[in-house]
Each structure stands twice: as structure tokens, then as C-alpha cells.
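Annex B.
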Amino acid sequence: MHLIEFPLLPSACISLLTLGFFSGTKSQQEIAVIRGASELEILASDSQTGKLSSLIRRSLFGTVRSIQPVRPLGSSKDYIVIGSDSGRVSILEYVPETRSLEILALETFGRSGCRRAVPGQFLSVDPKGRAFLLCAIEKMKFAYILNRDATSTLSISSPLDCHKSHTMVHFVVALDVGFENPVFFALESFLQAPGQDALSEAEQMLLVHYELDLGLNHMVRKYQRPVDPTTHLLLALPNSSSASSGPDGPGGVLGFAINSVTWYSEDYKVDPFSLSLPMDNLLVCASFLHKTKSSFFVLFQLESGDLFKLTLEHHGDTVTRLEVRYFDSIKLSRSMCILRAGFLIVASEQRSNATYQIVGLAEDEEQKWDTENNSKNTVVPRAELKNLSLLEEENSLLPITDSKVPFYFALPHVGEDSPRIVTAGGTGPDACLVALRHGLEVSELAVTELPLGSPSGVWTLGKNPCGGYSALGKTRYIIVSFPNCTTALIVDESVEEDTESPFSLSQLSTIHLAPLVDGSVIQVTPKSVRHIMADASGIKEWTPRSGTFISKASSSFSQLIISTNDCHLILFSLDAQGRLSENTFHKQLENQIASIALPGLPWGSANSSISEIPIVAICTEGDQIIRLFSIGPNGFDLLALQALQSGLLNSLAFSSEKDPTVGENETLFLFSGLSNGILVRFTVEGSVLTGFSLSDPRTRFIGPSSLNMVVTPSLQDPSNANTSSLVVLSTKPWIQLNNDLMNSPPQLLPINYICVSYAALFSSEDLPPGLLGVSGSTLRIISFDRPIGAKGHKIVPPKLQPYLTIKLPSTPRRLMILETNIHPLVSVFPNPLAMVICSEPCNMNAISISSTPTNCSLPNQWASFVNLYDLLSGEERLSLPLASEETALCGSLVSFHGSQQLYYVLGIGINVSQMPLSFDSAWIYVYEWTIKSDGAITLELLHKTQVEELPASFCPFRGRLLVGLGQILRLYDLGKKKLLRKSENRSFPCRIYSISTPGASSFHTVTSDTLLNTNATKVVVSDVQHSLLIAVYKPEDNCFYIIADDPIPRWPSCSPLPLDYDTTAMADKFGGISILRLPLAISEAIDSDPSGARLIDRSHLLGAPNKIENICHAHVGDTITSLNKAMLVWGSGREVLLYTTLTGCIGAMIPMLTRQDVNFFQRLEMLLRTSVPLLIGRDHLSFRSAFSPTKHIIDGTLLSHFHFLPPEKKATIAADLETTPILISKRIEEIRLMYAL
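Subunit 3 of splicing factor 3B: predicted C-alpha cells.
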């Protein structure tokens, strides 16, 4: 087995954040963020709206531990310094011209990995950009000096060490000392050696002063002073005596401790200045110093989510007054920053990152504390924002605790052709169930029933400010064609029919309508070509010869081509005087023309990059051939014939796009829609001198119905006359969007809406651009829920978007999907149901009013629920709250043999404490699952069974119930008063984490196999430390025997997923994913040996008698929380292994079926490992082999970096593979689209 791993939805979690001028322009501030743990993204903020747009996003293939901006002396821009697990420190430069990152310095200092004695965890940069300090958690500290050589190239010095043994670093900050020797303050504590007396309180926390002597090139530990033992965060203040410009400040640092904040001077002789605060023993989780030209203030946040503003007064270098005011209460943040434009960017600890506008500075706030009149009143948080205004939230799935992919949604009878991924995540009040689907979510603005029946076409027009008509700007006219008439609607405050419009025709339908470059409009009907003048001076008509009529038409900004029923092609051209003249030459074909297309945009301009090319593409009825003709002075000349392998041609359309997988410049493409739902894209190559041809065909399955295509003005930038959007109409509409990120190809995304027959652009002043569509006899206007483009930065939204969000009462732990079409006992429900176990401890001492759940009120209590939701409507169908001392641990739906009744079993712990693990008692509750005649579901408690250990997992097995209790695997049957113990095995080495059987995984989608499993004999058991163990049940002995285990210890982070009878996928908490398989010979021997004596009479390597083989393994860089097997592409018949991570990432493992694909992508991956720049110096093979060597899994993220390489590197790699760069890009794209989204 060989797999390729591709991310489907990258993580939106921001773990680190820093602010700087990375583009080198004073007017634009950028934010460098670390997504997840290993992706660097640079965001730009709009100074007017505060909306963030992405400039670049790259995978670093390593774990980033710290990030800071640095501006060396004489530089006009900031660089990015990164400390990571690579054992190197890297300095990166963002190049805005090419949207790329360049490595300026890469200095090796130690071993790789996130180790406590390897520097990288703490990073602090001198404000003048002369040096930075890189620290480890324990002992190790390195100082680096930044210089420039004669060519102004940045260079980095050798590291200067300032280690101190038996010390632990808690925080590091660089002081503002101007051009004096750089000074760093470190918050340290001594480590207690074995046998050493307990440390005194004065030695528990120290503020240590380090000075870098630039003259002697030496780092000095000057002094240390004891500080409050609870001090946990330092913040440097500006120094007025050293700053050439900026606010006046005392210098030194602020030290935040529990219930106090203290100012410490750089001078040891100056006494600290402290302010006590009633903070309820909470820590400061984030802070930021905002400087203006004349002043500064500090914004900091407590664990409760409450924001405070700190200001101070000083006399020279001495602080005389500290004042803290309550600011607002927001979600708990990891880090924050304030832009010069007054926007607060918050990287949330929970779900959604947010952008706020600062509308007040809490000057009139009554809740304040200062050193002159210190109040003892505690903070009373506000429920509503006062000084902040929420502008935008970036939805994140952080953290995902479980996920499932219901097969129900991919069935044709529910009208869905793509799966939906249901994720459970969030914590506390942010807990929710989110259903995702592929594509763009839209809102329906208007639906109008048309009295004349089903239209045969729809177009929109606007008014040109310079006079005449235009397809751009605000929509003014809507022209609807019916089989025997054409109606014009005028859009104003309301939409009304305009009978006086020149576009209205009482007895003729319209085939084609488009504006020309001079503001006039051409309207093609079966009996005429109507040229409507821009100045309303009249209408000129051209009619075909008697006995013929017009069947098809297409136009550009100055040309029109039509076909008649006698198979003739006629070309019209717009001359300099604004006359539309018929060309003297015609072209006659043998068959009727099914579709015709001209390149060039009807709303474009002659001097645009998308100019007219003298070609026309034609397909005729009944064949599978595309004919490409040139348009010359002597007529039409055949240039190329392109045959298609399957399906009849239905429509053609030209579109000009910039696709880096094809070339660096804008390229003309020909799209062909087939009757079998396949879209084929051809590249148009050549020139006027050499001729044109079609090459590089790329196919994409869109839907089961025939395809129609419409080219509209760009929905991303409607005001740009030289761009367009391709809309493909099938069972649902699709849209081609250009990705403005450098070297990123355009994306074809579905629009999650009903089937639309015709479409056109609809734009208004109050709403973002949307689509006007025709479905049946209704006219519909839809707009996108999220803007798909922003001025200056066009961003393609994520492919997976939430369409349904259900709030949960507390943190979700387990998720189960009940699919109504599978089990007859639940077939009365029209929609799939999601059952969620929610359980979380509640400690009111650490929760503010802004985040308090409504279901608990006492410390050390649990909030546990079992909830059932309808996945289409979001309605709650069932809620089962538990007592405050009861903790829901696991649950399952089971059907016992001999009974058609469904039962729900729930594992309960009484008074459970997590650290250390303890409990008073443990129970298994059995509920009768009852379905009433009206479809309502009820759970009636049948009985309770007390057990000696906490239940960790349930699994239906042969009409009974398998339970994991500590280190015990036990089989229960249903009794009248309690569960009856039938068999057990107490030989498992550690506490059991999950149980599953081949073909079904624990707490997965409910099917008949999961409920009965009458033929299963093998049981896959995972414990908390020793990976997988395979047990076999022998009915003759009524015993379970452990027959195989994994020789490598793994700590499972989610329930293993059986892929087939002998193969299981599992993930561990260190970010590894593995495919484990029981050897075929052993599996066959188990099935053929009725007693199993030959397989269990010996042990191997102090474990089970047989070993499981590891056939695939890779490190994904994040903790995996769920595994699913799903078919993501409708009709493909090919399943992928879907995984989710703790930080909200969704990825897919795609199987490769041919040895040719395996060899090709393995060779490509090896070449890219040496060609792709490693931005933090972490070796790619080493990163993917963390904790265990990578095996048979190819990194799709690395393959996607092929598009970002310069052309010369692409050519070198292609030469080594004996192919071309275009074919490499094509194969990468095809294998992804064939299996995944």
C-alpha cells in the first residue's frame, strides 16, 4: 500500500503572531502568523476596513517555537526571525514583488527536536535590530549579532553563549536602551537538584540582567534580583532617553504576576514600583504595547478573557504612578497586536480569531485601580463590548475532538453529489457541531416566479458612466428570454418590467446578448442580429436569407459569429465608425453546430492582455470532435481537430487565466463541457504567425448531467474589465476563481445551491457581487456568504466551508452518526442524526461572566449531556442531561441477539477527578431506544450495571457488547436487571483506549455490521501506550486470546479505524499516522485453526506470539483526533483515509493503485526534497520521520511546492523525470481531483 497525503482544509489556528513592516512600505503593516505549528502566513490589513488578506502561506516542514520581527540598522523593512525544532535559527525576508520568502541567514546551533535544553523556545530581539537572544527552557542561551557586509547583505555572527546550569527560563525580553549595549531581561528560576534542600521563596523566581558587549563580543550576566514568585510575563517599555523619535517612556520592564503588576528599572539601584490588582488569582495570557508618536499604553488579558488597559506616569527614568482600567471582555487569546489604524487582532485560544476596532480608550471607565487610590473591588465584566467593535471573525474548527463523514449525503436521492464532514469541537461555551461541505455557501436573496414559463436564457446589463451599456458595474437591466418572446426588466428600488426597452421583443426569443467595446449591444434572435446603438440613435438589424434562421452565436468585444440552420458560419466585425458589418466570406460545415465560442471578453478592451485572437472553436452535433478555425482575410482555415474519448460535446467557452502549472504568463484555455458531466480544459498554444493548436487536456468530473458554461465578469473584481469568471452549470453551479496568491493555480469550486439552467452576474451597491440564475420557471438571485474577493487582494476561500453550526452545551467528546437508510429500525427518519457525548469539568474560579456555561454553578462539578441532532435542520431531537457528579465517558448503540430492540449503552463515572485519575464508582447505563409513531425518540433507562473500572470504549460484537474496563476486555450480554458477564481477558498490559472489529470502528457510523457483527471473531484493541493488540474470540472456549501486537509502542490519540479484515489505521498523540496489518499467513492460520493453540502457545519478544506489520507511516506534525474512510468524489468509487487534527486541519490520505504512479511520485518527492528551500532548516525527511521512519506515504504538501519553484528548477526536475513541467503539474492535480476535493 502506498498513499499520498494532501491537506483539504488547512488549520486556521494561530499559535504565534508578530507585527512588522515586512514589505518595506511605511503605509502597510503586515502580520506574520504561524498557523498550526508549521505554516507561516503573512497577512495584510486594509487600513479602512481592517479586513485581513493573505499575502503568502508556506509550509515550513517543522515546528515553530518562537517568532519575532527584526529591522537591522540601515534597513527599510522588517525581517522574520524564527526559532524552531530544526536546531537552527533562521532569518527570512518577504519579497513582495514575487510573493516569496528568501532565506537570509540559517545558523546551526544544536540538535533538532523540541527539547528543553535546545534553544528556540524563547526569542527576544533588540529594538535597534543589532542582536537577538535565543534561549532554551533549561540552561542554554545564545546571543547573535547582526551585521551587514560591503554589499549590504545581512550576516549573522557566531553564537555567544551565556549558559547557566540548573536554571529554568520562563520569559525573555529585550530592553529599549537606544544604541547602548543590548540588554536582555530573563525570568529564571533554579532547578532543585536531587538531594538538595528546598529552595527558599526568594530563590524561586529571579529577574536576571544580561548585557551584550558589542565591543568585546561577549555576553555578561550582570546581576539578578528576586521578584514575586508568581511573575510569569515581562513587557519592555519605551525609553525616552534613548529614542530618537516616539513616545516618552521610563524604560525597564513590566512584570505581571498573580494579582499584581510591577515595574522594574534597568538600574538595579532603582526600586521596583508595584500595583496590586484584584485579579482572582488569574494569570495574564497575552499583552501588547501600543505606541503612538506622543504616548503609549499596554493592553493585557487575563485567563478569564477580561481585557485591561495599563498606563503610567514617570519622572525621567522612574515610574511615579501606575493605573489599570477595565477595558472589555473577549474570548481568551494566545496573542494579540494593535495596528496603527486602530484595529486589534486577536489570535483566539478557542475557536475564532477576531479583528476588533478600538472605538474607545476606557477614559470614562469607573472600574480602575491605581497606586494613589487603590480599590479593592473585584472586576465586574460587561456582557457587551464598549471600547471595542467586532469587525470580522475568522472561523476556525479549533479544536476538533471527533469527526464523521455520513454516507447518507452522497446518495442521489437526497440531491447531494458531495459528502459532508461533521466535526465536533470547541470548548465550553464555544462547543459546537459543525457540518462542512465542499464549495461556496450562498444566501438566497430573491425568488420570483415567472408567469411566462421556463426561460431559455438570461442576461444582465449595466449603464456605462461614459454612455451606453456595459456588463460591468451595477446591474440596471435584466433580459429574460422565453421560447417565443423576450422580456426586459429594469432594476431600481424594485424590479419592474420595461415594455419600452429596446431589448423587449413580443414574438422572438433571444439566443445571445452582449455589449460591444463602444457601449452598444448586440442582440441575436433566430430571425435577426440587432445592433442597439449606445447613444440610443436607433437599432440596426441584419436578417439571414430566406428559409434559414440563426441557431448559435458568440461574441467578443468587437466581433460576432453566428451559425445558421443550414450549417453556415457568418462573422461580423465592428469598425472604427461603430458599424457592425458582415464579412464577405462564410464557412459551411457538414453537420449542425452544437456550440460555438470566440476568445476575448465582450466587456474587455482592445489594449487589454486578454485581446482578441483570430480563432473560433466549434463543435457539431452528434460527434466528439472540437474544430479550431483561424479567422483570416480570406475566410476560415482549419487549424486543429481535437477528438474526445468519451461523451458528446455540449458547450464550449474560452477563458484566459494565469495558471502557474502551465506557464508564468496569462494563458488562453478552451473549456469543453460534455454530456456525461465531464469538463475538459485545453491549453491554446501558438501565435498568429505559427498557428494555434490545442494541448494539455485536463479532465474534471462535475456532475451526472450535461454541462453548460457561461462566462461572466469577474465575481472577485467586477470593476476590472479584463477579468472574467467561468460558471459551469450542472446538477449544481460551479465557478472558476483566480487565486491571486503568487504561483497558486485557479480553483474550480461548486456553489452549494440547486440546479441552475442559466446564469448571469448580478451586482448592486448594497451587496457583494452575486449570481442571477434560472431554475425551472423561477428567477433567483443569490449572494455569497463570504466575500470571494477583496479590493487589492483576491483570495479563494477554503474549499470546505461550514453550512450548519449547532451549539453544544459543553465540550464534545464522542460523535456518532445514525444513518437512516441503513438500519430498518431507524428508517422512519428522513434525515441523518448526529449523537454527541458532551462532558467537561467546570471550575467557576477560572471562568468569567463572558464564558460561563449555564449548566453548572459549583467548582469541581461536571456538565455531561447526550444530545441528538438533525444534521439537515440543526434541530435538537433528544437531550439527556446527567447529574453533576456523573461523567459521561463513552456510548454506543447496540442490538443484542434475539431482539429487534435497539439499546443505547452509556459509560458513567461518579465523581471523576482527572489529575490524578480517581473516581468513586463506575457504571454502565442501558437505555431502551424507542421510536414513537410521530418519529420522536425517547431514551428510557432499563438498568444500571456497576463495574470496577471506568468504561473507556464499547463495541457491538456478535450480538453482545464488548467493553474496555481498565486493562480488562469484557463481553456482556443483556439481562433483565443488569448486564451479564459472559467472557473476559485480563492480560492487556495497559488501560484499554478503544475497541473495534474489522469492518467497523467503535463509535462510528451505525450500520447493521456495527450493531450485530455476527461473523466477527477478531477484535482490534488499542491501549493508552502499547499501540494495537489483536485478540481473537473462540466460541468453543468462550475465551479471548491475544494473538498479535505491535512491536513499536504508540500512544493512540483517536479510535483506530479498520480498513479491511487485516488492516487498521491508527494515529498517535505525537502526530504520527500508521497503517498496520496482520500478516496474511497468520490471519489465515487464525481462521483455519478452531482452537488457536498453535498461535498462542508461544510468546515473542516478551509480548504476543505474533507481530503486526507497519506498512505505512508518516508524521503530519499535529495531533490527530479522528480517522474516517470516505468517498469524497461522487461517482468515483474510490475511498480515501480522512483525518482531522487538534488545531482544526482536515487532510486526506489518497491510495495509489499503479506501480507507475508510485515510482513517479516517489522520484518526484526525492527531487523536491533537495530543490524546495527549507525555510527553517529542518530536513524534510527528518521531519516526516519524527519518532518513526516515514514509509510508503508521500508528502502532498511538498509536491504542491513544485508550483512555487522558479522555471529553471522546474525544468531541471522535469529533465530528471524525463517529462515536462506541465505534465508534472498535471499529474499532481489529477491524482488529487480523482480522489479528493
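The longest strand covers residues 318-329. The mean pLDDT is 86. Further annotation is deferred to the next reporting cycle.
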